[in-house]
Specification:
Layout lengths: L9 H13 L3 H10 L4 E2 H8 L3 H13 L3 E6 L2 E6 L2 H25 L4 H13 L7
Antiparallel strand pairs: 1-3, 2-3
Helix pairs in contact: 2-3, 3-4
Length: 133
């Protein structure tokens, strides 16, 4: 269902909101980012994101319940991976949006003319002197 195709009923919008809510924590986003490299155990993820195993397990449970990650048993260990390619695509889309907004905010944060002066200074430092004969 696309927002352009038809009106979205409140129950559907609530489900969409729950999906975004599952992604609303920086630790969960760090876990997803670590899983872009492939399947990993909870302990490895905890080391990689700099959090405790208990905390990462809690966040993985939220991501799993929302369908963002899948898990497979490997002996006594549980391995986690991204549920599908759409997870990576959504993260890439959102990161591009955040970068664009940050660039615009930085542009507006500079005093008027500073941006052009900075570019001119950068060009003059990297330009090779011309040798005329």
């Amino acid at each position: 269902m696309s927002p352009r195709d038809e009106a979205m009923p409140p129950a559907f919008l609530a489900r969409v909101a729950e999906q975004f809510k599952a992604l609303s924590d920086p630790v969960r986003l760090s876990v997803l980012n670590a899983l872009f490299e492939g399947e990993k155990a909870v302990g490895h993820l905890a080391d990689e994101v700099g959090s405790s195993i208990a905390n990462v397990s809690k966040h993985l449970a939220v991501l799993y319940a929302a369908g963002w990650v899948r898990r497979t048993r490997d002996g006594t260990s549980m391995l986690y991976s991204l549920a599908d390619d759409r997870t990576a695509a959504l993260c890439e889309l959102m990161c591009a949006r955040v970068r664009e907004r940050a660039a615009k905010e930085a542009e507006f944060a500079q005093p008027a003319g500073a941006s052009a002066a900075a570019r001119k200074s950068s060009v003059s430092r990297t330009a090779k002197p011309s040798r005329s004969r």
